[in-house]
Amino acid sequence: MQGLFPIRVAPHGASFECASGQTVLAAAISAGIWLPHSCKAGTCGSCELPMAAGAVGYAPGVIPPADGRCRTCQAFALQAVELVAPDVPREPGQRVVTAAGRVIGIHKPSPDVAIVTVQLPAASGFSFRPGQYADVILRDGSRRSYSMANRPGESGVIEWHIRRMEGGRFSTHACERLKERDVLRIQGPYGSFVLHEGTGPLVLLASGTGYAPIASLLHSHLPEMAARGAVLYWGGRKWSDLYAVDSVHAWQQRFPGVRLVPVLSEPDAGWSGRSGLVHQAVLQDLPDLSGHEVYACGNPLMIDAARQAFVSQAGLAAQRFHADAFVTTPR
Ligand SMILES: Cc1cc2nc3c(=O)[nH]c(=O)nc-3n(C[C@H](O)[C@H](O)[C@H](O)COP(=O)(O)OP(=O)(O)OC[C@H]3O[C@@H](n4cnc5c(N)ncnc54)[C@H](O)[C@@H]3O)c2cc1C
Asked: What contacts 24+ positions apart, CB below 8 Å, involve 25-28?
């Protein structure tokens, strides 16, 4: 059926229209209604919402969520729909912008990571909240997502931490050939991995460049996060994967409420710190997470394992596990 379907967000009643052929999430974002989401590719589950009324459909081959929820990044409205999302503000907020950004700096803190700084034109109106990401649009229209690691408001400047993936198209380009003055087509902001109001202590869980959005959260909310107590468990295979330990130590010196626990899964022989899987180190130190809030970012397998273990073994409330999974583009 062709047409425009009204989508209402309960309980507060934000509403927007979804055209046939448009996904519910795309319609929401173009209306400035920030439904929760992360990968936009149907993989991470962040965008799934309970449906109080209506019906949605999916493209052939997409397996709908088993419990009748709406996977908004993949769902097409078939009639008027009511979604349940109590945390979504009623009024339209951010707008997605597409702009040409100029690379103004590239720094290689480790052999496999490039810190890329991009200047977006002030006139583009691009802005972001700490923890969000933006897409780079490649020549063939495909996209890659990268989280901003800096604090917003630095006159259109964004900083990305890009890990080189063996055989990966854009990440190898960024680490090996990208240079200052190159122009990138960028669209954003996207994502809902932002700091939620609360008072409980924080566990920050990162693998590799999963540190990037956490750095943005720390840059932007450091006194508040330190007052709550924040422990950053940062996992990598080798020490060089933890490419910004000095910055974390500098924050720690100013705000002792922030602590770093580095965890290596394949350490060199001389390593005397924590080893193994990063989420296991959290469970060893904090077997009761019932009063905590967790922000996890990076490898999707690490995120799934952490969510499952923290909720089932350590009493973490499922809604207090916030994550951005760095899923790669499906082929
Ligand atoms: C919300 C979000 C935020 C993200 N933020 C970050 C970030 O801050 N930093 C970061 O480093 N990454 C981030 N990512 C991941 C990033 O978007 C890219 O997916 C990643 O950099 C890989 O892109 P690529 O073009 O290099 O690899 P791709 O070309 O997409 O390849 C991905 C993987 O598939 C393999 N591959 C390639 N071709 C084939 C083939 N023909 N057959 C089988 N396998 C193949 C590659 O070797 C590689 O391992 C984020 C992802 C999401 C969803």
From this structure: 25/72, 25/73, 25/75, 26/73, 27/77, 28/72
